């Protein structure tokens, strides 16, 4: 500032490479002030308030300025008018800026045009000379591609006209209601046709040479529009039709088909009217077992979720025959996202629930399957408060009256025609002979209109084709129902008949085994099949995979026969009447004693332990001790289940007379030591002690020669049980989260092992594992990448019939005794643990992974740079989680054309606590993303990634067209989610954005998300406008068709109300969907699975 420049300006060293100016007093023209040597590769100019331009073009240059410059950064130059200042029409010297790779201009208030129009011809001639082929690259085939898109648009218009004609014809004749997705599709097609007309005009008006940059933008728009048109054309097929046959919103949890008919609809209307009546606070629905009370209540529940009256505050709890106040309180608290587990006093728990309910203006609570009066005030339900609605279902009218229900509705059996319709619908036959129709009618008459009986009987007849078999079935049904007068007694023989139609004893035994679970409880397929295998209820097969397949086949048969129910999470359940029938069956042979989930504090009386007992289930009770001297005489007992009891000890004589015991299940008990009499149970096939955290002592297992399944996971044993090496028939060995060491060489003797699960602290002897030729399931820790490569060779060398069914491998040289923050199920997992990659020197091929791996996790492993460079990901990977990696910068580096399609099968990607991640992609050359990359991605979670600024760079969001869930949290530099205008994410159901302090934009145009169900927002106060596309339905502005809830951080209520909207009425339209939630309800819990479950609870997915 104080220097008086001579005519030559400032003299700089001729070898200088990096030149920075900051508030130095630079003025006028950079080159006048400071002739720049051609050695300079980087130039940054900050906070100079007098500089006007970089180059002044007034006369021909004698040299070539800036010919080596690679980076030019201009920031906060308030008087800069442009890069160039023309004082005469002169050429820019060829070679100027020829090496420039990065140009950044920020907060330069006076610059209007980067490349002024009046000089663009000259400038582009120079650019074309400097970058030969550059213009051709950007403008290639623009007109040809426009014509191609025009043809696609015409085809799309034709399909739209066909659909429109179909809709018009149906409207005139059938009166059916068109699907919302059809209406949305029609609107999308009309919009894209208009957009194309504008684009086509732009192409026609961009033929001049200086339009090259405009043509580049048009080419990008053309590519996006072509993809959209292709997608719309495919969507327009509507394979399921254009119209609603039934209410699409119903997501039934029960197996029972949706009931219809005049009586059913009348009941729905009565309940709905009562719910809308301010004078009716409680509604009772009663009727006999199996008549459809739960189905009716479920229909109302799902309909309420679609309506805005209760803003999504609709809660469902199954009570069941045996219930406790504490259990009911816990179930309700879970629905409310309220933690009361640390509170044991029922009164204080009730007070917390009461306060939580008070936060909600209006809500509906449905209590299903209530058997006796419940004092709702003791539970914590504010039943007398305005806006509270209580609905109960019960078999007893007296229960409804005792709970002071203001409206009581009886569910009657079906009419004769309705019963026949339900039977035929369940039978699922296109047509049948007249004689079969008559037999069907007679069978329906035997069911007396009871839906459960109709469905179960029809399910058992699905596979019957021959007329003789139909006649025989009718005669058998008549005999089974003789002498039955009472309706509920009469339905049981019908259910019993369906059971006998299973014919196969194996199927029947597998069905009866399900009655060992408590009433109304769900059980997993995998767990149940494991028990089938241990109990030898299914045929022995050559591999565990084959046995599992057989188990699934059996369960599928039971579901198809309507004897088991299956929900959307693949869990199974028995209807309480069917379970009652199964328990009646087991009063004889095989003889069961089932007292599961009854809150028993003591064992059943001695006289109940009969000598012919085959199975006993006492799971999920409160039994703390077995009295000394207790020794039931049950020589035929094969299965004893005492799991999930606070049982501390078992007397030594207890097993003395149980010499036939084959399965002993003590999972989740407080047992401290097993009695010595265990050693004499020589027929024992399965010994299950998972979760016995106080267990310190187990007697010798040497005599248990036929033992096939031993589970010592999560116990406190300090040494391996004696006689372990003698268990040569062992097939399943689980030692997860245990603390003892394996004796070297033990595994060599266990040659029949199919499943081996070892604690992570224990370094697996890889040579011993290689010797286990029957091994199909492996869970263990490896010490080094070299061990991983050995295991990889083992996995890849297996023959097709001996492939691994599942493996869960953690790679780490450190002992790891605590559970990982992930929930694992059956699958093929690889976890790179703490520092596992730090000492590993990557070769050119990176880490070699098993080619069938499905789930890949990194946690503080030392991953660095680019994920794909470090670890080429096989296309078998469906889930990838990366936690606490402080050196990783990106997922993919785009440097050259890919010869393959990465991440084409990936469904879930979670990135958490990655402080140096700059984005999913890092460009080092202008190359396209391979088509199909991320095309299957459904869930994307970004948490605590401080450097990432833009999530989806321009034109790449279309690769994520299958995305269903997007979560972005705690990314302090995130400025923009989608760098694109008018975005359609057709499958997106849930969006959660929280604690993004720098976020300025979600996307530049409209967010067209027709499937969005839940939006959760908080801590994004720099967002001034939410460009959510709101369609017009019946000429009224409406929310997106499936949007159910908008959750807003309660601290941001003022921000939400101040948002700007494209339409003046948008806020009013959406406000009825808004719920204000505490900030902590958006919080990140340990482990991403908890985050996802929290999000799903927020969104009621």
UniProtKB/TrEMBL annotation:
One of its GO terms (molecular function) is ATP binding. Keywords: ATP-binding, Leucine-rich repeat, Nucleotide-binding, Plant defense, Repeat. GO terms for biological process: defense response to virus. Residues 265-425 form the NB-ARC domain. Residues 516-582 form the Disease resistance protein winged helix domain. It holds the Pfam family LRR_8. SMART domains: LRR_TYP (SM00369). InterPro entries: Apaf_helical, At4g27190-like_LRR, Leu-rich_rpt, Leu-rich_rpt_typical-subtyp, LRR_dom_sf, NB-ARC, P-loop_NTPase, Plant_NBS-LRR. Residues 923-1005 form the Disease resistance protein At4g27190-like leucine-rich repeats domain. Belongs to the disease resistance NB-LRR family. This is AAA+ ATPase domain-containing protein. The lineage of its organism: Eukaryota, Viridiplantae, Streptophyta, Embryophyta, Tracheophyta.
């Amino acid at each position: 500032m104080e220097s008086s420049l001579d005519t030559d300006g400032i003299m700089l060293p001729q070898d200088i490479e990096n030149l920075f100016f900051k508030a130095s007093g630079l003025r006028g023209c950079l080159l006048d002030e400071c002739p720049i040597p051609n050695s300079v590769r980087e130039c940054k100019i900050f906070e100079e308030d007098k500089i006007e331009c970089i180059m002044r073009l007034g006369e021909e240059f004698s040299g070539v300025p800036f010919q080596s410059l690679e980076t030019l950064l201009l920031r906060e130059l308030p008087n800069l008018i442009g890069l160039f200042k023309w004082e005469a029409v002169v050429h820019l010297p060829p070679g100027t800026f020829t090496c420039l790779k990065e140009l950044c201009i920020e907060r330069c208030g006076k610059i209007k045009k980067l490349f002024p129009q009046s000089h663009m011809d000259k400038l582009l001639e120079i650019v074309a000379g400097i970058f030969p082929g550059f213009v051709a690259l950007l403008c290639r085939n623009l007109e040809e591609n426009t014509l191609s898109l025009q043809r696609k648009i015409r085809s799309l218009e034709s399909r739209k006209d066909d659909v429109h004609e179909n809709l018009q014809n149906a409207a005139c004749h059938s009166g059916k209601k068109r699907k919302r997705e059809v209406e949305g599709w029609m609107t999308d097609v009309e919009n894209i046709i208009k957009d194309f007309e504008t684009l086509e005009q732009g192409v026609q008006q961009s033929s001049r040479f200086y339009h090259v940059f405009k043509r580049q933008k048009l080419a990008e728009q053309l590519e996006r529009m072509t993809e959209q048109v292709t997608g719309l054309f495919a969507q327009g097929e509507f394979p399921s039709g254009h119209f609603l046959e039934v209410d699409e919103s119903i997501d039934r949890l029960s197996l029972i088909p949706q009931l219809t008919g005049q009586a059913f609809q009348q009941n729905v209307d009565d309940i709905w009217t009562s719910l809308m009546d301010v004078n009716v606070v409680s509604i009772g629905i009663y009727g006999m077992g199996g008549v459809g009370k739960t189905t009716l209540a479920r229909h109302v529940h799902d309909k309420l979720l679609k309506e805005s009256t209760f803003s999504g505050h609709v809660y469902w709890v199954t009570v069941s025959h045996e219930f406790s106040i504490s259990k009911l309180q816990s179930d309700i608290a879970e629905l409310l996202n309220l933690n009361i587990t640390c509170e044991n006093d029922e009164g204080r728990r009730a007070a917390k629930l009461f306060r939580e309910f008070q936060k909600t203006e209006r809500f509906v609570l449905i209590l299903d399957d209530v058997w006796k009066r419940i004092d709702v005030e003791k539970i914590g339900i504010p039943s007398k408060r305005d806006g509270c609605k209580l609905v109960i279902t019960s078999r007893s009218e007296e229960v409804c009256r005792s709970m002071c229900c203001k409206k009581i509705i009886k569910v009657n059996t079906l009419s004769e025609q309705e019963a026949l319709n339900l039977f035929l619908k369940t039978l699922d036959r296109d047509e049948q002979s007249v004689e079969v129709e008559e037999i069907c009618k007679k069978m329906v008459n035997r069911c007396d209109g009871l839906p459960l009986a109709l469905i179960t009987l029809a399910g058992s007849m699905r596979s019957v084709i021959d007329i003789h078999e139909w006649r025989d079935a009718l005669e058998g049904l008549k005999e089974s129902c003789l002498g039955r007068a009472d309706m509920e007694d009469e339905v049981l023989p019908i259910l019993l008949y369906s059971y006998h139609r299973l014919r196969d004893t194996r199927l029947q035994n597998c069905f009866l085994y399900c009655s060992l679970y408590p009433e109304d409880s769900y059980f997993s397929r995998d767990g149940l099949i494991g028990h089938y295998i241990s109990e030898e209820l299914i045929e022995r097969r050559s591999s565990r995979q084959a046995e599992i397949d057989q188990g699934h086949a059996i369960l599928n048969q039971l579901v198809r026969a309507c004897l088991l129910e299956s929900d959307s999470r693949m869990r199974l359940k028995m209807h309480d009447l069917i379970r009652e029938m199964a328990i009646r069956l087991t009063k004889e042979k095989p003889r069961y004693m089932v007292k599961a989930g009854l809150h028993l504090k003591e064992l059943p009386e001695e006289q109940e332990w009969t000598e012919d007992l085959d199975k006993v289930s006492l799971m999920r009770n409160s039994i703390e001790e077995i009295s000394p001297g207790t020794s039931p005489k049950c020589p035929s007992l094969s299965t004893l289940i005492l799991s999930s009891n606070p049982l501390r000890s078992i007397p030594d004589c207890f097993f003395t007379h149980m010499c036939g015991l084959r399965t002993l299940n003590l999972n989740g008990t407080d047992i401290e030591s097993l009695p010595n009499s265990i050693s004499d149970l020589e027929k024992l096939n399965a010994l299950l002690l998972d979760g016995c955290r106080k267990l310190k002592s187990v007697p010798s297992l040497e005599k248990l020669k036929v033992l096939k399944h031993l589970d010592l996971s999560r116990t406190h044993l300090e040494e391996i049980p004696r006689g372990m090496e003698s268990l040569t028939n062992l097939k399943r060995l689980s030692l997860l989260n245990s603390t003892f060491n394996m004796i070297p060489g033990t595994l060599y003797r266990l040659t029949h092992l199919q499943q081996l699960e070892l604690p992570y602290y224990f370094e697996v002897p890889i040579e011993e594992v290689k010797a286990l030729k029957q091994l199909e399931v492996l869970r263990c820790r490896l010490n080094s990448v070299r061990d991983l490569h050995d295991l990889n060779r083992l996995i890849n060398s297996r023959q097709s019939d001996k492939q691994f069914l599942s493996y869960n491998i953690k790679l780490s040289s450190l002992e790891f005794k605590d559970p990982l923050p992930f929930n694992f199920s059956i699958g093929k997992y690889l976890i790179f643990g703490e520092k596992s990659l730090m000492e590993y020197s990557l070769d050119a091929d990176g880490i070699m992974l098993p080619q069938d791996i499905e789930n890949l996790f990194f946690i503080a492993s030392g991953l660095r740079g680019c994920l794909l460079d470090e670890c080429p990901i096989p296309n078998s990977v469906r889930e990838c989680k990366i936690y606490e990696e402080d050196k990783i910068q990106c997922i993919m580096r785009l440097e050259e054309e890919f010869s393959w399609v990465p991440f084409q099968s990936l469904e879930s990607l979670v990135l958490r606590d990655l402080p140096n991640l700059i984005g999913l992609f890092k460009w080092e050359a202008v190359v396209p993303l391979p088509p199909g990359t991320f095309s299957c991605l459904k869930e994307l979670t970004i948490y605590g990634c401080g450097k990432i600024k833009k999530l989806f760079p321009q034109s790449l969001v279309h690769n994520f067209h299958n995305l269903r869930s997007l979560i972005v949290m705690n990314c302090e530099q995130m400025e923009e989610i989608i760098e694109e205008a008018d975005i359609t994410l057709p499958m997106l159901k849930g969006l959660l954005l929280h604690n993004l302090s720098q976020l300025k934009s979600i996307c530049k145009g409209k967010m067209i998300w027709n499937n969005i169900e839940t939006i959760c927002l908080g801590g994004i106060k720099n967002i001034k406008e939410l460009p959510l596309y709101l369609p017009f339905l019946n000429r009224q502005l409406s929310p997106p068709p499936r949007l159910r809830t908008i959750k807003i951080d309660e601290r941001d209520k003022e921000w939400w109300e101040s948002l700007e909207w494209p339409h003046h009425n948008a806020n009013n339209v959406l406000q009825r969907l808004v719920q204000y939630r505490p900030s902590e309800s958006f919080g990140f819990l340990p482990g991403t699975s908890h985050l996802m479950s929290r999000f799903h609870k927020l969104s009621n997915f």
